[in-house]
Every structure is written in C-alpha cells, then in structure tokens.
C-alpha cells in the first residue's frame, strides 16, 4: 500500500485518519465501496454510512 493510500484511509464513522491503526476494512453490503472503521467505533458499535449509496450499518 502506498503512502498516498494510507493517508486517504479515514474511519467512515468518525472521520479520523486510521493509517497505521488496527482498523477494519470491508466492502459496503449494497454497492461494494471500500469502507474503513477505527477500533473505537467498531467497539462502540457506532453507525456508519456509505458515502456512495447511503447504506447505514452498525
């Protein structure tokens, strides 16, 4: 992964830069867009919304 790709990785829930953190990356269940979530948002089950299709999940 290039440095540019790491910089662009932000938590879909809270928006923090997650480069170098233990975070989850997964595809949106509806459209397949790559989403990222930080450890804190996953642990707290914070909602996320896909920026492409608007799908919302826990």
From TrEMBL:
Q: Which PROSITE patterns match?
A: PROKAR_LIPOPROTEIN
Q: Which residues form the Small zinc finger protein HVO-2753-like zinc-binding pocket domain?
A: 11-54
Pfam families linked to this entry: HVO_2753_ZBP
Which NCBIfam families is this protein grouped with? HVO_2753, PRK14890.1
Q: What is this protein called in UniProt?
A: HVO_2753 family zinc finger protein
Annotated source species:
Halocatena marina
